[in-house]
Amino acid sequence: MFDRLFNQHQSARPGAVRAFSLVELLVVIAVIAMVIGLLLPALSHSISAARQFRCQVSLRSVGFDFGVFADDTMHGDRGNDARLAPRFKLETFQESEYGIDEFWRWGDKDRHELPDESNNDPMRCSEVDGYVTLQRGSPCRSGGVGPAENVSYTFNGRLDRAPARGSNGSRWMQTTLTDGVVSEPMIPLAWDVDGATAAARRVTPVFSAPIADSTNGPFASGSLWFPAMRHNGSLNVLFTDQHVEASKDPLGEKSWKWGFLPR
User: Fold this and answer.
1) What is the pLDDT of residues 197-239, one digit of tens each?
2) Pairing mode, if any, of strands 172-174 and 161-163?
3) What is the separation of C-alpha 165 from the centre of its chain, rounded to a whole number of angstroms?
4) Total number of domains constituting the chain
5) CB neighbours of 239 closer than 8 A, spacing ≥ 6?
6) Whole-number CA gyration radius for the chain
7) Parent domain of 65
8) Does the residue 175 lie in any domain?
9) Each residue of 58-73: pLDDT tens digit?
10) 34 occurs within a structural domain
């Protein structure tokens, strides 16, 4: 009798702590799991959107540099293209961005990895992991940048190669640009590249282009088209006038001049 009264008194005390039952714990866990399940897609989308924005900022920086490089009065060092003034080659600009070939700025080393200890990495998409190795004395298209799998951006091959005059499109040669290309609207300059696909095709990813309107030349087969739709299924594209757009159907964009060829 005394034990029963004592136990009743203990359970009625104001400070007594009641433990959760197993069923209650399972219900709480189930509710937490459901909330996490609802939040994860939104969180994942937000993270992807932030990475896409970082990539676009990186491309805009490249676009700004291109605008300066193309300008007849502000361009600064154009390396070997000084002899071509007022024209210049797209590959020369690309090499100035990486700091390779005649723009080598990595001291006495024959090789340099990006990102480095100073966090130099001017041509990086936030979704691409791995180091890019720069090779001294080599231009972009000849092994100056690699491995292909880790390259973030490709440049418009039609601004690098064009049909030779009088060849009817049967012979393509390296071409040159003028500052007028910056004022031409909607010409793709650079975009996200799928380096792994380029590597599988045994081609360099530093230049690329779709088939577009041409049935001749190096882009006719489509083998040099390997865009990376890595930002929520969209492709980030930098244009020669320095603005950036994203599209889930880049070749379907009517105003984008994929077939543009410099004069």
Assistant:
1) 999 999 999 999 999 766 678 898 899 999 999 998 999 999 9
2) antiparallel
3) 34
4) 1
5) 63, 185, 186, 187, 188, 189, 245
6) 28
7) 42-252
8) yes
9) 999 999 999 999 999 9
10) no
